[in-house]
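Quick entry, no commentary yet.
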Amino acid sequence: MNVVLPCRGSRFDISVENQWPGSGHFFSYLIKTKGGRMLKKIENLPANVVGLRAEGEITKEDYEKTLIPLLEKEHRRGGRVRFLYQFAPDFTGFTTGAMMDDFQIGMKYLRLFEKCAVVTDTEWIQKSVQLFSSLTPFPVQVFKNEKLTNAIDWLSQSIIESNLKFELQDDGVLIVHPKGPLRREDFDQLSSLIDPWIETHHHLNGMVVSIDQFPGWENVGSFIHHFEFINAHHRQIRRVALAVTGVLPEIVSKVASHFVEAEVKQFPYDKTKDAIAWVKG
């Protein structure tokens, strides 16, 4: 479905006119802005939550002076954002104005988010968020303004621990230790760690996958998402070492060498230190 939200005055006119590629642009859809200075940072939130409150009519200046710096700061920090976006009761809409390209916003910031709570009494925003949240790679919940504290509590709750333990060393070498069946969320978290580094340094020097026995995937969707991760990143990784026990990793390493640009080599699990030395060599 192709959707665009042109603004006439201060009200939205929803029509099918231009391309809107989909889930990668969920947040750009919500935050296209122009006009006054009514987008404000919410203070006194839990340490792991950042939030913005939209009041009155939101403008391009609000977007550029409040939202962009906040996302850029979190992006440079390399962490993931638990984002609270509140549309206050006096929110009236978005004025027309210059807007950042949908594709750029989706590609740059989508994987930055860990969870998002949208707080609004505006019915069309509630329905829109519920529709597109199913396409985002992170959990999204909608709350009414009277349930603001519930939204904050939900954002603060712990997320299931990742089955991937990973460390990005100062020299651009990524060490990965799978601990259980791999899930799509594991690869989203991994992307949020390495993508800022790649954006700055253009590549990772190497990646080492170290595990005694490969645990497999949680489901078919996780398997597909794993290969999407490989497809998106293999050109930015110089060397990949598999320090894994078993026949399957040996087969995988041989097959992978034919369709990824990174140099791939297998090591016994008990030679993980040798694998790290090789990718750094």
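second:
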Amino acid sequence: MLEVSELTKSYHKVRGVKDLSFQVESGTAFGFLGPNGAGKTTTIRLLMGFMKPDLGSARIWGLDCWQDRAELKRIISYLPGELHFMEQFTGQEFLDLIKGMHGAHETIRKNQIDLLRILELDPSQGIRKMSKGMKQKLGIIAALMLDSPVLILDEPTSGLDPLMRKTFIELILEEKKRGKTIFMSSHHFSEIERTCERVGIIRDGELLAIQDIALLKQKERQTFDIEVGGEEDAEFLRQSDLTLYPLDHHKFTIQVEGEQELLWKTLAQIQVKRFQQGSLELEEAFMHYYHSSLRGDGT
């Protein structure tokens, strides 16, 4: 388990993070969402033992992230948000160095070969000549090939094209099947939605809300674009209790949250010429939850 309790860190009177508390159960994935500068990287550096907190604590598998930081490196694979390589190396030389630092086990070698194939990276090329996307792939391979039980990933898809982002998500889902505990920061809600059981949002160094993805999906709102047969049908819709957004004279967008019984009962009483179903992004459901929690209305 990963446990953070009242974690606080400031930089020369400038707040880094303040009073963070959350837990990540073993074998689950936690998404850490927020804009640039929100405190995501500071939190990860505290988890990695790169900095001593001013107040509070963070523990992984019962080990204190600051006091036991050397021992923690044996169970954590880390992908930093800003990658810095020894540019004179080839990709293969860098991977061999990482492999040697972790015992050069056969499992690591096999994982490396598989990941190079999956991510379509030629490791013989010099790092200096690699694009940002290629360097990101190299960092992902270096982290995942170690088969560590805990993964801490800071903006892992930065620089990847959409196809490779999809491939990365598939890799993370495979890691989850193998029981890994994953803490992943991102500003892309879609990859958090697909890979994590829980998500927290941080802004200006403070944790605003934490919610289960499954519960968010229950709050997910759906939209329906509809064109009705005439003015009488349009007026019937306007008089209903549905949430309507007029598009044209006889065209509307209907928004439904939760049960859809009222929608279908209403549509059964009118002539429908065109009907198309869509769905709002889960990110909107999350922000709806967040704003509701601020208002205290529980909706």
